[in-house]
Design brief:
single chain; alpha/beta; Pyruvate-ferredoxin Oxidoreductase, domain 3
Length: about 190
């Protein structure tokens, strides 16, 4: 398989680690050498969380440098904008349109930037922005944003839906599997 570099970015508690496990499991089942690296900021306090997922025939390092990411999957718009310099030319940002105020915005020391999707597009970045929170709620839980995003990301991989669903069954606890299947389908079909 051609090497792919995927960054999953968000705020602590949004489920980026489950998303990276799902993606890592799926790619490993496809016969890829997969490396996953989790970089935590102040994740317990709503800080930035970044996960690198790299796959290919032979992957020696889990780290993705600036200008190397094929995809940035973002749970939140400001995180997408914060990490876009890691995207390679021709890469794509797949993002939820959700906005989570960082601490400077909460304390009133800064304002949440406006029109981030348009600003990223004006910078020449291909952005696939989707209201994942509404779709996750429709699936049954606002916590399923991560799986809605994985459903959306699945559009850009030449793999059958069934392979993604098999990976879901392997990494999601059985009592949450049906909800996550719904979330995946809503993201995939959006």
């Amino acid at each position: 398989m051609q090497e792919k570099n995927i960054m999953i970015v968000g705020v602590g508690g949004q489920g980026s680690l489950l998303a990276s496990r799902l993606l890592g499991h799926l790619l490993q089942q496809e016969g890829c050498d997969v490396k996953v690296s989790e970089v935590h900021g102040m994740s317990q306090r709503g800080g930035s969380v970044v996960t690198f997922v790299r796959c290919g025939d032979h992957v020696y390092s889990p780290v993705i440098d600036r200008g190397e990411a094929d995809f940035i999957v973002s749970f939140e718009l400001l995180e997408a904008a914060r990490w876009m310099e890691y995207l390679k030319p021709g890469g794509k940002i797949v993002t939820s349109t959700q906005q989570i105020d960082p601490m400077p915005v909460i304390t009133g020391k800064a304002a949440y930037p406006e029109n981030l999707t348009e600003k990223m597009q004006a910078a020449g970045v291909a952005v696939d922005a989707l209201d994942c929170l509404t779709l996750a709620e429709k699936a049954g839980s606002p916590k399923a944003v991560n799986i809605v995003l994985m459903g959306r990301l699945s559009h850009y991989f030449d793999l059958p839906r069934e392979r993604w669903e098999d990976a879901l069954a392997a990494v999601v606890p059985p009592k949450y599997l049906e909800l996550n299947r719904k979330a995946f389908q809503l993201g995939r079909n959006a």
